[in-house]
Design a protein that fits this description.
single chain, 363 residues, alpha+beta, Deoxyribonuclease I, Chain A, 6-stranded mixed sheet, 9 helices, 34% helix
Length: 363
Amino acid sequence: MFSIFWPLNLAKGLLGFVMNGLVFLSCALTVMALMGDKGWVWSLSTHFRVQYLCVQSLAFLFASFSYWQKSKPDGPRKIDQWVSLIVLGSFLGINLAAVLPYYLPQPKPDLAQISGRPLKLMHINVFGNVNFNTEAVIKAIQTEQPDMVDLVEYAERWRHKLEQSPVLKQYPYRLSGLGNMALYSKRPLSNARLVYAGRKPVANQANIIAKIWLNGQPVTILVAHPASPIRPSHLAWLQESFGTWAKERPRLGKNLVIVGDLNTSPWSVEFKTLIEKTGLRDSQLGLGIQPSWPMLLPIIGIRTESQWLTQLMQIPIDHVLVSERLVVTERHTGPFVGSDHLPVVVQLAVGPSQPVPHKPHSI
């Protein structure tokens, strides 16, 4: 018999099909993420743990509701409902274990033991070959008033425009003009230089290394933009950069900050290996996941960072990694500047040696 509700039933069926497909895909990708060291595609699957968690949490809620809804009054619950809950709960637990540590409180030293003015550092991937909104970047720097700002994907025309701005004239200590990146500082820099982490001296893969003094202690700043792992050769390139930093760690000083668009999430094998071998920690720990990429449709200036649905589609690949004695007193993402990345702003101070933080789960 023809039903006037057939469009509603069709929509319900399509929604169920799509949802089941997303759940299956998130579970399959979770399995791949557990084997992220097996190759390029496997490594790519590690970056979206928050998205897998959201899909599986929603599915688990639906499965739980279905479990409590009996098909007949006082009828038995079906075995497939038990299986669904167990399977979904297992996958949900795997991804929750990876994400939750970023929301757990971290051990912190007594702030009364910290003297001197903290260092405010701002990182911006300006997307310079596509983004033309130099005014937005200038405004963001003017609003945040960082002591130091690094810029990557920093095209030459951007350099000319920004260095003519009164805002950047406040930063007399600088290293720019090479490597498709720049470092501007209000505080004196020493031994500032451009180096290459890998064997290929390609300009946009250079690193900036400089030393500053913070609360009477020398701090090494390493600005980086390793290759985006969009193909196997680029992943190998990124791994080579990370390996070089780990090898050079003893020569970079006790107090070290690695900042930049690292083109990897906190859950990748490469990121976790870098953390383990350098003894650095992710400045997001205890402050929650702060995604920075991708901003949707940045070229036409759509302001997306305030939309929670868009944030669920983003991942954190712009990082500030700090050594043991560096205290993160503040961290947040900055405003939309026309780039496909959001800026990242951190405030650092030198404190006493800190307890070992809660690290992300190894899975």
